[in-house]
Each structure stands twice: as C-alpha cells, then as structure tokens.
Write a structure and sequence with these properties.
With about 725 residues, this protein is mainly β. The chain has 7 domains: about 220 residues, Jelly Rolls; about 80 residues, Immunoglobulins (Immunoglobulin-like, Sandwich); about 70 residues, Immunoglobulin-like; about 70 residues, no CATH class; about 80 residues, Sandwich (Immunoglobulin-like), CATH 2.60.40; about 70 residues, Immunoglobulin-like (Sandwich); about 80 residues, Immunoglobulin-like, CATH 2.60.40. It contains 1 helix and 50 strands. The longest helix has 8 residues. The relative contact order is 0.06. This is Gliding motility-associated C-terminal domain-containing protein. Pfam families: CHU_C (PF13585). InterPro entries: T9SS_type_B (IPR026341).
Length: about 725
C-alpha cells in the first residue's frame, strides 16, 4: 500500500525576486517567513493528513553556534555544513505518537537568468520497526510545478524506514535506528523560467504510533550558479572551480566534452585558462536522490587585486586552542578578502569553531573577494599538550600561622619542569602577592606552565583556623605506664571535639604511638591536638619512670606463745624507701602492733620510695600454741588462795571461750571473747556445791576444742 498525503494549504503569493534566491529560503533571517508550516498525523492505513498553521515546537530553527552540536543518534552536526547560519529541524516530538510534520516553500523561477538552480540539503533519522512499508516512519521530498499542476521527478524522493536504505547507517546508540548525514540535492530549474514551483518536505512517525522519524533541512542561498570559483583576479596563478558537495560522482569536461578534466568536486586549473573559457560539469546523485544533471560555468577575469597570504603552520595549547580567524594568520593579504574554514581539501566540511581548534591536523582556509576570486590554502595546526598540574591542598594552618603554597608537596605529581605562579582568580589575572605566607582561608589558584608556554590552572584550598585549646603536663610513673594512662594524666582539654595523637618526634613524621604503647624508661613525647577542620598543634611532654623498690621479705622463725614476732625484722634495712605493714595485699588495713604480732597468718610489707613507687611482699608468721593445762581444782572460799579458776596462757587468746557444766550437763559458766573474768564458782549469785565439773575450752575457730574436769573445793 502506498502512503497518501493530503495537504490543507492556504495559497500564499509566490515569492518574486530578481537575480538572488527567494527571500529567506535558507532561513537566514532566523525565522520561517515565507515558509508554510504543516502539522498532522498518519493513520493506521498509512494516510498522512497535514494542515497549515503557525510554526510550533515541531518546526525548530537551529542557529549555528561556536560549539558544534551533534545529533544524538547519528553523531552528525545538526547545523548544515554548507556554511549557513540557520537550519531547520522537522521533529515529530519526543515521544512517537503518529505525528507528521512538514514545510513548503512556493516561488517563481526568474525569467532573466540563464542558469538557475536550487540546492537543498537534508539529513534524516528513522526508527525501523518490523512493520509493513506503508506503516513505517518516512521522509518525503516533492517538487511541484504549480503552473502545470504536476510533480517534477528530479529532486524528489521518499525514504521509508528500512535496514538497507542507500547512504544510511545504523546508529551506535540504539539498534534499528538508521540515519543519513547531510546530503545535497540540486534542482536545475532553468527550463521552468516564469513558472511557479513549490518545494514540499514531510517527515512522520510510524502508523502504529510507537516509532519515530525526524529530519533536518537547509537551502543554499546561492541560486544563480552552483559552480563557484570561476573568477580570477590580478595576481592569481591558479583557479579552483568548486561544485556542490555530496554527490556520488563528478566529471569535469571541456565545453565540447572532448576532454575529461577531473573527477573531484574541486577542479584546479593552472595555468589560468583564457577569460570566456567554458567548463562543463556532469554530476551524478546517489540512487533515488535526484537526476543526472549537467552544469556549466564560464571563466571570468577581474582587475581587482587578489593576494592571499597565510602562515604555513600554527601551534597552540589544548586549553586555549588555535584561532584560525586571528588577523595574524592572514596578515599581508589583499584588503576585502573574506575567509572561510574547512576540514578537508574538497571543502565539503566547514570547521564548526575555527576560532578555537583543539585537535592537531591540516586545515584549509579559503579566501573570497567581492569579485568572486578565491583561493584555498592548507595550514598545519599542532596542538600542544596541556601540562598535568596536580594539586594537593596544604594542611590546615593554625592562626596566627600561615600557609605556604610554594612548597613542593602542594604540586607533587605534576608534569616535570613546570614553573608555577599563584593567583587569586581562576582566570589568573590577579597575582597573589604572598603565596608563601597566606593568612586568609579561601580558594586560590596555581598555574603550571611548561616550556611550550602551555599552562593549566587548578584550584587549591587554603584553610586557617583557631588552634585547639589544650594543655599538657609532665608526668611521673613507677616502673612503666601505658600510653592511655599517660595521656589521661598529661592532657587537659575543655572541648571534646579536639582529637589527640601521640608521637616520639616533634615534627610528627614518624608513625604515631599506638594506644597499647608502654613507656618503660624516661622519655620525651609529643601530643598533637587536631581540630575537626584540621588545624593541629604539637606540644611536648615528658614521662619520668621511677624504679620500684626491690626487696624480699623473709618469713620469721615460728614463735611459741607468749612470744611475739617483730615484722620489722623480716625485711632488709634500706635508706631508699620506707616500710609499712598491712593485713592485706592492697594495703588498706594497717597493722598497728607490727612489732608484736602474736597470731599465726600471712601479713604484708609495703615498701614505698620518695616518688611514691611501692612494692608489696608477703610474710608468713607462725605462732605455736603451747599446751593448755587448766588446774584440776580450785577453792573459792575467800581465803585469797585459789579463789578463782585461773587457766594459764588463755590471756593470749582474746577470741577464746570457756564453758563449764555440772554433772547433769547444765551450763554453770560461760565466757566468750577471752577469759578476762575467771570462773569464781558462783552461778546465778549462789555458790556452787563442792563437786566435779566439766569444761570445754575453745582457743579460736581455728583450734580444736579441749575438755576435761575440774573439782570445786571448800
């Protein structure tokens, strides 16, 4: 099924003109004046309907800028490389929705020109879904003879999305998207003098509304003679004839077609042919993109001087590039020459930004004057590498200190051999007066320049802050001290945000001490306090290690009660420390009568030096208990002789207990916590009768009790 396009057009007056192209046919006004804008849709049967209306966001004029912008899918420039300022994008929208968009231009071919041609340029991007041909996205160009009410075949074509379209390539961004970069079509209209012609351009999405198509369009503003460069001026020695670019084949002939002169789009003739010589060019378009055409041009001469002078080569840095448009490049050339710039000798690709070239290569400068004389010259451009400037921001400095940007550590890692300068601004226009002593926080800039005078500017951050407020004191310790304990005793800080590290050198260049470090000898160390922003202060401290007293307590010989042990005799005499005596190793319970120890047990001797260094050793005291032999009788008759039951040795057992029972087993006497009041034979205020009584004596909880009998006499 074929596509059918219905157009609802409001007939506009055809553009009438003289020797020039139709008004604004190349969009050079930056508007769509004199163009008819069309918007519509494609239905499921493949029929396209378009209606005339004002320009909208589907008709986008693209102004050529200093930086080349490329198509997302095709990576070709969105501005036509024919040197014009404006191009048009026919865009069906961001999301495929079955839209169609178009433009048309109607004009009258002049009667007075012998040779008249229109060259239009197009680029196309079409998505290729697996649909029937009539459903596919497409781009259509038609030339309509309004006067004869019929379409003209040459210069008209239709691209329907497919994987085998001539001149199309598949996108590297997305599969099944095909694009054709900019290509020209020449419409030779000399046979249509006085007739009204309409150019029609249409692009559409697929009929199923899921796949897109869009196109770019531009029309050359030179309609009189498509071959340029046919004029030479005084002083010229060569002439370069240039045909429109983008055709499949070129054949230059003499006027009678007897001699083939060249097969490129540019024909160079030297020596100069006589004025009036006619040259014929046969151009062959790519298949289905126009008709075979024959163009003619006549060599003309001008008395205007034309002397084009260019430098042979230029070099520049990556950052700034090379400016081919600088006046110094063409100094010495004749006045009135205008220059254009190309990437190739065939002059098919314009330089998008000749004022800033950042890639080495051979480029071409073409000079033209008002008389039509031209010359193209190559110029070698070498782009020198930008130096590698590596910047490490310096450590934070503490007020009232300063930061030195000139130290090598700041630029370590940069390309060798660079010279450095220091600036307040990224454009390097305001030099720093004191880069070695900066006292203000901020971002500054370092410019590194190599021997080729290429440079790069990089920022560097300078930070100054108030120093951390803390104090350190020397400490003393006995035998050894862990770093954590030393730090807690030495460092005092009122804020918790300051972090501390500890070092053995004042510069802090060695590894910091670990928390498990042990000071075993008298040593100087350094405390580094660092604020969260990085400001750090190093302060010295000293740890003095005093020795422990070295002694050994000797267990005394066993003593038999009532003998006692003198603990002062268990340790060596020393003038370097003082002894004290304790019931416990932690030296909490002191022994008051340490020279009269009367109890078996382990005791402790603590030696302490004048530096409060101490050592505790234990001593084992053994007191032998003598046998307890109570009297077997006593006579509590008041005669002053044996009136109480006196038991020898019990006074040395303050924890002892004595119990006395009668024959019936009733207690008649009890004492505890010593036998300080001996039994006097009285029980409950009455004298006990003469009889034999029975006793139990317990010296302490550690002794076995002893028992026996005692007789109470009169």
């Amino acid at each position: 099924m074929k596509h059918f396009i219905s157009l609802l057009l409001i007939i506009m007056p055809a553009c009438i003109f003289g020797q020039n192209c139709p008004d604004n046919i190349g969009f050079e006004k930056g508007t769509l004046d004199n163009w008819v804008c069309l918007t519509g849709e494609i239905d499921r049967a493949g029929q396209i309907s378009l209606a005339q209306g004002p320009p909208n966001d589907l008709h986008t004029l693209i102004e050529k800028g200093s930086t080349e912008v490329k198509d997302y899918f095709g990576d070709f420039p969105v501005s036509c490389p024919n040197g014009s300022k404006y191009s048009l994008k026919l865009n069906t929208g961001g999301n495929p929705s079955g839209r169609a968009v178009g433009v048309s231009y109607t004009f009258v071919v002049p009667n007075v020109q012998s040779d008249y041609s229109i060259i239009y340029n197009y680029a196309v991007v079409l998505e290729n879904p697996p649909h029937d041909a009539f459903e596919q996205p497409q781009f259509t160009v038609k030339v309509f003879d309004v006067t004869a009410n019929q379409y003209i075949d040459c210069g008209a074509f239709q691209f329907v999305a497919s994987s085998n379209l001539p001149g199309f390539k598949e996108s590297t961004v997305k599969r099944e998207v095909y694009y054709k970069p900019w290509a020209p079509i020449t419409l030779k209209l000399s046979a249509f003098k006085g007739k009204t012609i309409r150019l029609e351009f249409t692009v559409n999405d697929c009929a199923r509304k899921g796949h897109f198509g869009y196109a770019y369009l531009d029309v050359n503003e030179n309609c009189s003679e498509p071959i340029t460069g046919n004029v030479f001026c005084a002083g010229s020695s060569v002439i370069n004839l240039k045909a429109p670019y983008g055709f499949q084949a070129y054949k230059w002939y003499t006027e009678d077609f007897s001699t083939l002169l060249g097969t490129d789009n540019i024909l160079q003739l030297s020596p100069l042919p006589p004025v009036g010589t006619k040259i014929v060019l046969e151009i062959t378009p790519f298949p289905n993109q126009g008709c075979l055409d024959t163009l003619k041009t006549e060599i003309k001469g001008s008395s205007d001087p034309f002397n084009m002078v260019t430098v042979q080569s230029l070099s520049g840095c990556e950052a700034t590039g090379v400016n081919l448009t600088a006046a110094s490049v063409t100094t010495g050339s004749s006045p009135g020459i205008s220059f254009t710039y190309f990437t190739d000798v065939s002059e098919t690709e314009y330089l998008p930004s000749p004022e800033k070239l950042i890639k080495s290569g051979i480029y071409y400068i073409k000079g033209n004057n008002a008389a039509g004389c031209s010359e193209t010259r190559p110029i070698g451009v070498t782009i020198l590498n930008t130096p590698n400037v590596q910047i490490t921001s310096p450590p934070v400095a503490c007020i009232p200190g300063a930061v030195d940007l000139t130290v090598s550590a700041v630029t370590a890692g940069s390309s060798p051999g660079l010279s450095f300068s220091y600036w307040e601004d990224p454009a390097a226009t305001k030099p720093l007066s004191t880069p070695a002593a900066l006292t203000r926080t901020g971002t500054y800039y370092i410019k590194g320049t190599n021997s080729n005078n290429c440079s790069d500017v990089m920022p560097v951050m300078v930070t100054l802050s108030n120093p951390p407020a803390f104090s350190v004191s020397d400490i003393e310790a006995c035998d050894a001290i862990a770093l954590t304990d030393a730090a807690s005793r030495s460092v005092r800080s009122a804020v918790t945000s300051t972090s501390f590290s500890y070092w053995l050198d004042a510069a802090g260049t060695t590894s910091p001490l670990t928390p498990g470090h042990i000071f075993k000898t008298t040593t100087s160390f350094y405390v580094k306090g660092t604020e969260p922003v990085g400001c750090a202060v190093m302060k010295p401290a000293k740890v003095t290690i005093h020795p422990l007293p070295v002694f050994k307590a000797t267990d005394p010989l066993p003593a038999t009660r009532p003998a006692v042990v003198d603990l002062t005799q268990t340790v060596p005499v020393s003038s370097s420390w003082v002894y004290s005596y304790w019931y416990d190793r932690t030296a909490v319970r002191p022994i008051s009568a340490y020279q009269q120890v009367a109890k078996t047990g382990k005791y402790y001797v603590k030696a302490i030096t004048p530096y409060a260094c101490s050592l505790v050793d234990s001593v084992q005291v053994t007191i032998i208990d003598p046998p307890i032999i109570p009297p077997n009788a006593f006579s509590p008759n008041g005669d002053g002789i044996n009136d109480t039951w006196l038991i020898p040795i019990l006074q040395y057992y303050p924890e002892c207990s004595v119990e006395v029972y009668n024959r019936a087993g009733h207690a008649v006497y009890k004492s505890s916590n010593g036998y300080s009041k001996p039994w006097d034979g009285i029980f409950e205020g009455k004298k006990l009768p003469v009889a034999t009584y029975y006793y139990i004596i317990r010296l302490s909880s550690l002794h076995q009790p002893s028992s026996g009998s005692v007789t109470l006499l009169k």
